[in-house]
Description:
single chain, Alpha-Beta Plaits, 3 helices, DUF1428
Amino acid sequence: xxxxxxxxxxxxxxxxxxxxxxxxxxxxxxxxxxxxxxxxxxxxxxxxxxxxxxxxxxxxxxxxxxxxxxxxxxxxxxxxxxxxxxxxxxxxxxxxxxxxxxxxxxxxxxxxxxxxx
Length: 117
């Protein structure tokens, strides 16, 4: 079974194109270092729920959308090694992302797959 890192981000709508550029660059780096798959999705049908929802989870504002993304690896061990390489990669150094989205409202975590159909 694979291992997956998942991410949820509130993204100002005015920054969508800048985020896409950053995501393309990040995806290339992740894949070069061994990730099996890298996916970024813009919210299309993500209503603001009364109790819980994707927008509520990241405190999305009226002028923001939600980005849901994930990276797939062969295993947790591969993920740990790949992420270490990605974080050290000079192409992703710097604070470029800080002007695109608020990292303090990003939700992320690692997940062990138990079913793949």
